[in-house]
Design brief:
two-stranded antiparallel ribbon, disordered N terminus, six-stranded antiparallel β-sheet, 249 residues, 8 helices, alpha+beta
Length: 249
Amino acid sequence: MKKNKLESKLSAHSPTYQPLYKQVEEYVTQLIIEQRWKPGDMLPNEFQLAKEFNVSQGTVRKALNALTDAQILNRKQGIGTFVSEHTDQQALYRFFPLVADNKKPQLPMSETISRQLILATKNIAKNLQLKENEEVIVLSRLRKIDDEPCILEDIYLPKKYFNKLMEEPEIPHTLYHFYQTHYHLTVQDITDQVKAVLATSSDAQRLGINVGDPMLSFTRLARSLNDKLIEYRITRCRSDKYHYLVNLS
């Protein structure tokens, strides 16, 4: 049987027994990973894609709907389908769940305390699936809401994915958009573990609280669109005036 155009393109990436819409979904994702379609780009319409892939419009629509549900694509009614961008607004509601009591969510501003290159310890290597002693960039940051210190972050990044980061003149507030635009790495999946901890003397000094005050600690692992572990982040947050907000709707 002669393969259709889409199956030929996908032969290196997907098993042939997958449903056709899944093959379209994976192929579109691969095009985004390869930067054929970049963040913010508008995709061809469903008719054009169906013709290009030699499948039905219904198959294309099912694949695009799945990618939209996964927030890889963004469909704008009456306009078109776009590759999702990690904008400040998206980061606010998807990646920063800490909110000041009795206030609306807002994006914390950041100040880089230090930026250094280290060799991965056993724990860092395990979390980032690296070999021990591979080079890792560590960003330590203080974040503020309404000019009040409220968050401390230690962010571990494999140098092999961010090889120019130590030379960057400035590190922006929203890192995920920065990863996307400067390093072609789109954060897709995030796992956060949250627990209660007590403020250390270093935490207390930087956040203006007392040693032993209750805090929230977040341990985050972030994977890229092509399933690479690209970030291991430890975040400590004040809990005296702030709360963790999750909207499950």
